[in-house]
Amino acid sequence: MTETVLLVGGGGREHAVARALAEDCDLYACAGNRNPGIAGLADGFAAIDETDTEAVVDYAVTVGATAAIIGPEAPLEAGLADALDGAGIYAFGPRADAARIETDKAWQRRFMRDHDVPGCPDFEVFEDVDAACEYVEAYDGDVAVKPTGLTGGKGVRVTGDQVTTDEATDYVRESEWDEWVVEERLVGEEFTIQALVANGDVRPTPAVQDHKRAYEGDEGPNTGGMGSYSDTTNELPFMDPSDYQEAVSVLEAAVEALPDYKGVLYGQFMLTAEGIKVVEFNARFGDPEAMNTLPAMETSLLDVVVAAREGESLPELTFSGEATVCKYGVPEGYPTDPSAGTKLTLDEASVAAAAGDREGDARLFYASVDEREDGIYTTTSRSFAVVGIADAIAAAESIAADALAGAPDEGVRIRHDVGTEALVQSRIDHVEQLRGE
User: Cβ distance 366 to 376 under 8 Å?
Assistant: First the structure.
């Protein structure tokens, strides 16, 4: 039987998921924005707000979906997986209660504490603004201040790094959030491991390092992610295999405490001088990390989803052993004051040609764009990503850089340092310093 899969979401992450599925099933998609890359791969595309659970379920029933994959976090919080499951359409994504591991940061930390999930930092939760501010001011060391709800990766303020103590307390007083998590600042190197999860099985993927800061050299405000890279092995160049295994054990402990969890569990970790700490969990593929992981995954994503639905053991995941470097193109001024309306000059053919005669590949993934009769234009959010794929990080970075040479000269900004030898070496040097090597 040919499976019919509904993909929910219209970003770069979902374009990568669509690429991983399109040849193996009848693919339909829906999102609040029309992603031309997804629409070109799908048998049908509907403009539906992802959090309109009733409309999404109706569309899934109309197209005869036998399974669904939910890309973004907002529909998970809205209970879309619950609604699809209730309609007899298997959703590869956690139900709202389990998705709280991402959507409610206070719940996440209490869950880790109560179930002895390793890597939990020192934290306190506050509903009273004055009490939160007093705690920040009195804390012996720097802290991370987090609203409990979803903020698109842009809601955390870290003293001693991004802001002063006064700026952090001003942020708490001036925001409209009702609850705050204040926790110790974690110092080290961040990395992400995404795992495919169902029926108690945890199938981890290679580690990826995202770059949240807007500007080169890790300067500027946090963003949804400006780019990322992965290596030819499970771990990154600054990690030992034992670091990777320690992080995977954290994911396994979380799933053991959430036995009905299904979908993707994303762990964002900090490699510190004291070992692995959890920055946060997410309940879906990362964006941009999905664009590193899925092009290198040789196991069929559809096979994983079908095994999950049928209550079977998930297949072991295999990967190509290639490195990947992803670089996002964003509108000028992003994320604080973005300017939309720049016409994009890249297409899939020109990006693929950038690899030339070299051993490797380059791929273009669209994110938030405006498709018009005369071309594709930027919006005020991240617009597109280019991924280089090769037998080493440096080679993948070179391919991605060559592909991006065709990007617009004005109106689009790229962090060109993502994946460069100099930046990767700085990560290695940082960890060696942390370890006293």
Answer: yes
